[in-house]
Design brief:
Layout (H helix, E strand, L loop, with lengths): L7 H52 L3 E6 L2 E5 L5 E6 L4 E6 L4 E4 L5 E2 L10 E7 L2 E7 L5 E7 L5
Antiparallel strand pairs: 1-2, 1-5, 2-3, 4-7, 5-6, 7-8, 8-9
Length: 154
């Protein structure tokens, strides 16, 4: 009767080959992972902004996004939480032209700290590794997302 199967040497050779292939492939995945993280965060924040702005318009009252640590929290006029976005590990975000809060009036326009309609665009730079995205809220209430330089977050 003949035994079927692999010898210990054959199994060890296969394990070593898998290890070598993994050692070569994994570092090449880092840019792909960074790109996916940056794009996912840009999508999540854009959706949060749209949801908050829409809430302000539908309710006919102000709504806001509070940035608390690594969490972005959307609230309506009564401070009821609408939605939350948690910043992913390895992702840095740098707001431009605002501090820790974005507010929208009942028509969906951005309000500054004094409650006056903001006259300039707000930018949010999202960086992961060497990959950067720039999310821009225009005064016309439109939102754009484009590639940017990741060094801006440093």
């Amino acid at each position: 009767m003949k035994n079927r199967g692999f010898t210990l040497i054959e199994v060890m050779i296969v394990v070593v080959l898998i290890g070598i292939i993994a050692a070569i492939a994994i570092p090449n995945l880092n840019p792909f992972i960074s790109k996916n993280k940056a794009e996912a965060m840009a999508d999540n924040i854009e959706n949060l902004i749209r949801k908050t702005r829409n809430t302000a318009i539908v309710q006919g009252r102000t709504a806001s996004i509070d940035i608390i640590g690594r969490e972005w929290v959307s609230k309506d006029y009564n401070n009821t939480i609408i939605a939350k976005v948690e910043i992913l590990d390895g992702v840095n975000i740098k707001p431009v032209n605002f501090e820790n809060k974005i507010r929208f009036d009942k028509q969906g326009f951005i309000l500054n700290n004094r409650g006056v309609i903001e006259s300039r665009s707000i930018s949010i730079h999202i960086c992961s590794g060497e990959i950067g995205k720039k999310l821009q809220l225009k005064t016309t209430t439109s939102i754009t997302v484009e590639d940017s330089n990741a060094t801006i977050c440093n």
